[in-house]
Structures are given as structure tokens and as C-alpha cells.
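Ex. 9. Protein: Succinate--CoA ligase [ADP-forming] subunit beta.
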Amino acid sequence: MHIHEYQAKDVLRSYGVPVPDGFAAMDADEAKAAAGKLPGPVFVVKAQIHAGGRGKGSFKELGADAGGGVRLARSADEVREHAAQMLNNTLVTVQTGPDGKQVNRLYVEAGSQIDKEFYLSLLVDRATGFTSFVVSTEGGMDIEAVAHETPEKILTLGVDPATGFMPHHGRAVAKALGLTGDLAKQAGALAGKLYTAFMARDMEMLEINPLVLTGDGELRCLDAKIGFDSNALPRHPDIAEMRDETEEDAKEIEASRHDLSYIALDGDIGCMVNGAGLAMGTMDIIKYHGGAPANFLDVGGGATAEKVAAAFKIITADPNVKGILVNIFGGIMRCDVIAEGIITAVKEVGLSVPLVVRLEGTNVAEGKKIIEESGLNVISADDLDDAAQKIVKAVGGSN
Ligand code: GDP
Ligand code: MN
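Predicted C-alpha cells for Succinate--CoA ligase [ADP-forming] subunit beta:
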């Protein structure tokens, strides 16, 4: 789960991490009032969306010259003007895709004078099982571009969970950032606080870009992005409350209500599969035959007919879906339960696209019989390869 920048800064502030003072605002008057509570003379007005690249982004309604989603202002009135321009308009950045995202919230913070911008992030390195710092002296810009063009400028430093963060990790981070003396001490302390926050709040990823050196010789986190491990959210009700559903895909929210693993993709073949591995394999083979999956969907092991029906409805409600492939390998999941779920859903919402069904395993005969007797217009398939070819053909793909 992701949260907004202003929420991430609140979390970090509570661990003593240096971040600029600021206030969230939902309308232009609130933004002006927020500026009134800050010392000035420079303020920053920041669009709060779950996507980066805001500074270099532009608003659809305003055109490229009007300014992006991170703007400096020199008075409370100017803050109000920027706020009025940004709110309810659509910010397009490299990370939002061409449709952009509507700005519903702003963050108004004290402006910083920047002498240097760094990059610092923490993430779980699944290969080593360590929590790793990723640091670079090339902050503020697109870190993917740095990784691509000058990978030697990005350093990774793992922390063994058995020892936790030690002073030498702090010194290594400082060295990687090219800092000495008091600044190295600041960097070490900051890295330790970030690590503590990361572990205590079950984060998956914490990115500070940029971490800056200010004119008064202080390190400060100017931007903050946090992703939390969703499986650990029950341990952090205060964080779960920060969820902003307007930032998420509506179909994914509906799926999570039914405890389905669902991820929307940009193809046109809807997939309903049991088991994450089989779902991945199904997506691969669709691609192999020249098609493109519209989603990843794992209905899980012990799904009920109601859950299957909910899953099927989520797929059919997607206007991009031009055909559906159901691929079930019955084990704990029974084929007749899947068949019943599909029939229930089709009775309620209809079916206007081709449906290919491949069932195998527990109660397969019963499952096939239920589908045959329903009179549904189903293209049946014998194995996965056959199923993938048939659905790609049905949606007018290359095979
Ligand atoms: P992003 O574009 O979504 O990553 O948003 P950031 O919060 O990283 O802001 C983008 C850029 O705006 C930063 O890299 C800075 O160069 C600039 N910026 C942000 N806050 C300030 C500030 O307080 N003072 C100055 N001078 N520049 C800032
Ligand atoms: Mn940034």
C-alpha cells in the first residue's frame, strides 16, 4: 500500500527524521492559511498524487507552460493562486501515464534553499534477505536514468537483519554520498532513523529523492515515498487509515474486498485462474501466442462460488476485455464450484465477449456438465496451449 508524500513525511517526522514543516490542504483557502502558519519567505505547493515526476509534469487543462505539480511561491497569496490552479485539475507525469491523475489534495511546506541533491532509498532485497540502502550523489532527477547511463554512481549497501543498523552502516552511507565531518555525522544519524522507521512500520520501500543539503548546512528529506507491506497492515491500523482509495484502480479495490489477488494490466484478454504460478504461466502463454492479458487474477485455493462470481464480474466489467480465458487446475479448488460461479455471474451481468474455458482436475466431469447444461456459449479447450490459442484467435489476435 502506498501513501501520499505529506503522510510519509508525518511518519518520518515521528521518528525524528528531518523534513520541512508543512500542512496538507484540500482547498485553495486552506492552502493560503497553511502558508500563514509557515515562516516564509519561500513556500512550496506540492500536488499530492501517488506518482512521482510531479515537478516536471504538466496539467492537462493548463498546458505545458503553466507549471508542474511542485511550485515555489513567495507569498501566501501566491500559494493560493497555485493551489487554485492545481486542485481538481489533471496532472500528467512520466509515472502517471498519458491519462494523468486528478489532484485532490495539496501539501504546502516551508521552502528550502538547496545546495546539493542526493538520492537515498531503502528496500527489501529479496535475493539476500537484507534491507538495503540504495544511495547516489545524483539526486533530484530520474534515478532510472542514472541507473541506465551511469550505474557506477548508484551504490547498494545491505544491512543484515541479524545485526540491525550499526554505526559502520551510517559511515558507509555518508561515504557513498561523499560527505565528511559534521555532514557525515548527520547522514549516519539520518540513515539510522530511516532504518528504524522502515523496520518498525513494516515498509517495503522508502525513497527519499531528493535528500538535500540546505543553505544552512543541514540534510533534509525534501520528497518521501513509502510503500508498506500490505500483509503487515493489520499491525498498523494508523497506517491502514491513510489509504486513499481514489488513488487506486477501482477494480483492484473491489477485488481486495473479495480477497482476490487481482492486478489490472493493459491487454484485452481477461484471465481467471487458480494459483499464482498458473496465472503467471497462463499470461506467458497468451503472450506467446500473440495476445495480451487484461489482468492477473488468482481466485485462490478454497474459493466459493460467490467469490468466483465476484471475480468473473470484475473481469466482465472491464471495457478493455474482448475475451475471457478461464484456466482452472482443480485441486482443493473444485471445477464444479468454478462452473457454478461463472454461471451465477453470467446470469446476473450477461456475457458479451467470447469465453474459453479449460478445466482439469477435481470434479472436472461435474464442472463441464454444469457448463454444458447451462446453454452458455462457451468455447471449451483441452489443455493450456489449446486454450490460449483459442482465446487469442477469438479476440482477433495474431494466431
Ligand atoms: P517529484 O517531481 O514528484 O519527485 O517531486 P519532488 O518533491 O522531488 O520535487 C521536485 C523538485 O522540486 C526537487 O527535486 C527540487 O529540485 C524541487 N524542490 C522541491 N522542494 C523545493 C524547495 O523547498 N526549494 C527548492 N528550491 N526546490 C524545491
Ligand atoms: Mn522526488
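Check your answer against this statement. The domain at 21-110 is CATH 3.30.1490.20 (Dna Ligase; domain 1).
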